[in-house]
Amino acid sequence: MNLEENYCIFTLKGFDARINTMAISPDGNYIVIGLSDNTIRIWQFGTGKTVRRLEEHKDEITSVAVSPLGKYIASGSKDCSIMIWDILTALPLKKIEGHSKKVVSLAISPDGKYLASSARDQTVKLWELRTGELITTFEGHEENVRVVTFSPDGKYIFTGSGKLLGVDCTIRVYVLDGSATIIKKITWQEEPIYSMKISPNGKLIICGLAYFLSKENCKIKIIEFETEILVGILEGHKGSVDSIVLSPDGKYMISASLDKTLKIWEVNTWNLIETLKGHEDAVRSVLFSPDGKYLFSGSWDKTIKVWNFHDII
User: Fold this and answer.
1) What pTM was estimated for this model as a whole?
2) What dotted CATH number matches 18-248?
3) Which end of the chain has the smaller Cβ count within 10 Å, N or C?
4) Tens digit of pLDDT for each residue in 100-155?
């Protein structure tokens, strides 16, 4: 079966740069796309058209996030800065500077009050989203902090880091109370952490990894938050797992990889349901529509594919 032919309902082309990152508005109307040409595009799903082009960064875009109410966009760049934008007017509202190296990952808290950023300067910073004011800096990592995310209840910040050869391949958990207190440091893995999601009930940490010895088998590891026990290892990708997303109903997980594929996993059993092929280069970002009907995958092949998820499962 040609899965691309059967389930990919649309391929958005016309970009002249690699797609590094994507985020979706809460209503599913807009896809925010960060590219390697230093720009951000806002694509309207209903019309299939790019409606805004945002240009302020001086280097490629590495991460984007949309606030829970859909009012703001946050963007991080290789130029070490963060920009806050109005999603409707596409006007820049605030430029945030504070990291000394490339900003790698951004996350907005579930209540929309805070923005967390991680960078190659080995730090994570917490900002007030509306004002851009720095609240605190989380330190302790000894390598690039490749991913940052909030717990679903907004009480904790999770970070993942690492370098090839096993340097600081750790998960750290900080309490969100202004004290920058670390409450957990999980150090069992030898592979750098490239992506991370927390299960909707907050009980599981799901990590997409790069390779340690062989890129022929890059893994996804599932850890129980309270006990720090490794409860599952998912294998099959032949390149770093660069993006992970959970379906809105929590029943499925999608992983996107440097190996040009997406994999669909059933959460209760962690069985592999399907592998989606069709991209011609690394798949760097994957999103669900809020209703769970569609998947969006963004790639270094300069395309975005829209998949009919309900037909696949």
Assistant:
1) 0.94
2) 2.130.10.10
3) N
4) 999 999 999 999 999 999 999 999 999 999 999 999 999 888 888 999 999 999 99
